[in-house]
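Task: encode each sequence below as structure tokens.

Item 1
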Amino acid sequence: MRHALAMLLLAAVAMPSPVVAQVSAAFAGTWTLNQESGGRGGRGGGIPGVPIATEVTIRVTPADVTVDTNTGSAQATQTAVYKLDGSETTVPGPLGWTVKARAAWKDPTLVVNTMRSLEGPNGPIGAEIVDVYSVSGNVLTIERTQGRNKQKLVYNRKP
């Protein structure tokens, strides 16, 4: 009896959670910035050095989340792939900076911790940015924090 209970618990832990699958599926799609609902966020238009995407496309698999944004030079599309196994990945960033990120599902949100680093004349310098993605219906909200700077970006699902 104990062996059967142990096997049942092991199977339950090993199976993917339908709740996480439902939550992650809600993030998939193309989203456009809602300028009227906190679009620019933060004082002075946002966090210095962090461009604001006017369009975001999210693809979700059990292993990773891929985010395409129009934040590159001349609004070219940049693609970041965030692994969901806790491993660090290199993602696009400003020219000359090394940008590493880790992502994880936390309840109904996706939390992405990004560390930007650059070798300066007096040694390395860096900045940590935390993006918390949440979805409610057809609205995607990204709450971004860098030190004391905070920004709230609101996007609508593109039909």
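Item 2
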Amino acid sequence: MALTVESTPGLRGEPEPAVVWFGARRVGVRAIEDRWFAPMQRWYRIDADDGQLYVLRHDLASQAWELAALTRREILPDAVERELRTRARTGPLS
């Protein structure tokens, strides 16, 4: 699926997604969860402000962005979401 991506300079100064447009629908990037690199392509798994995880592919030769995957996520209560994020940053409790 073709889409429009607003980007900011990231690792090594390469463009990283900040906002994704699916037609007229705007989705903000809360965090880049993971990155994969190939000689002429980059993939980004993003945590979007609509609560979904998307995998975006950026072709460096054409500068085109594509939706590679969508992972629907169950909406968790805010307290559970905060606890999971805290544990991801600090490690599991002893």
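Check on item 2: The mean pLDDT is 84. DSSP finds one helix and six strands in the chain.
End of task.
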